[in-house]
Amino acid sequence: MFFKQALDKQLDSWISDVREHANLPVRLRLWNGSEYQLGHFEKPDVTLTVREASALPLLLVPSLDNLGEAYVQEKIDLDGRLADIIQVGYGFSAAAARSAGGMLARVAERFTHTKEEDKASIQYHYDVSNAFYQLWLDPRMVYSCAYFEDGTEDLATAQLKKIDHILTKVRVQPGQTLLDIGCGWGALVIRAAQKFGARCVGITLSQNQFDMATERVKAAGLQDRIEIRLQDYRDMQGQFDRITSVGMFEHVGKENLPAYFGRIRDLLRDDGVALNHGITATDPDSGEVPMDGSGFMDRYVFPQGELPHIGMVLTTAQKGGLEAFDVELLRRHYAQTLRHWAENFESNAETIRAMVGEKKYRIWRIYLAGCGHAFTTGRMSIYQVVCQKADRAADTFPVSRRYIYDAPIGTNG
């Protein structure tokens, strides 16, 4: 009885504080039928249903990590437009951070990133099932930031434009060799062989991606020009004219970045060109941003994922023996990409639930929408960095960036 009274008092105090300082368009519904308004709104946008008393400790300190945990564990339900739900989540988290004096930033964990751990992390994320990804990605299954040249493209067109944008940036020529680190389901290497005439090797640690990419290469009749390998980049040998790494270096680990870029340098011919396309932190010190939901991400989505600031990317690339020749921010492009993914996901909600179960459905639903909000508001960012071996003449590149835009991109030619 004493515990219940204390909890009720704490809950009443929390509700009053949220109404006064956060003013959120939320109806709070408890397991016992009690309802409260958490803001001064006639019609709340979101209904938050607390399904059991054990959720209250998570709710009373509503960081994004705690809210995500409670939602995934089915201790709370959230009803309303997905965009409103995410906005409310950030509102809760901001209020909690203010109450705690801004001390809700998560203490960064140190990851070792052994080959075995990295393989397990990749397979955890990517080997849900190919059919699962096909429900919300584009037909080529490109799982990285698209390129909306006009801003009006559909997702499939924007993803094709992204691939061509990358291949044009690194100036792939017919007959050149290209290594794609983290090749996904094979879209980039297939395009590089078909349109640009390259001879390609694509590597992945995901068994599902390897199987489908291999099938797609065979279906395209490109076995003589493309090889797909289930292999760690650290085990690669040889040298290549061009190297691309798209949406992979987030798994490398910040402490390992100099070695990662150094390995790319070793695999690159002296006059070769490399491009790294990856998500970055917005904190200049490459730390975690308060209210960023990184604990939830590490636990449920990207085990051992680490994001460096673009400053660290350029510094560690130089330490690895690479000089950056072109840097492009694509944050707004990723926000638009994630909106497409989230909409596709919502459109196929019942099919996805039946396929992967309620828990994984909730994880991916909140992850896609939350990331879209993070890129929209600048909590996360993403850059493409074009590099060449350091201390060399820059003869590979024209003196201006016009070459990137003069060639038509995103066509089927």
Automatic annotation (TrEMBL):
From the UniProt record, give one GO term of the biological process aspect: methylation
Catalytic center at which residues?
A: C371
The keyword Ligase belongs to this UniProt entry's keyword annotation: no
Q: Which GO terms describe its molecular function?
A: methyltransferase activity
For this UniProt record, the keywords arranged alphabetically read as follows: Lipid metabolism, Methyltransferase, S-adenosyl-L-methionine, Transferase
- Family annotation (InterPro entries): CFA/CMAS, CMAS, DUF7884, SAM-dependent_MTases_sf
Keyword Nuclease attached: no
Identify the residues that the record assigns to the DUF7884 domain, covering every copy: 19-91
Family under the similarity heading? Belongs to the CFA/CMAS family.
Q: What is this protein called?
A: Cyclopropane-fatty-acyl-phospholipid synthase
**From which organism does this entry originate?**
Cupriavidus agavae
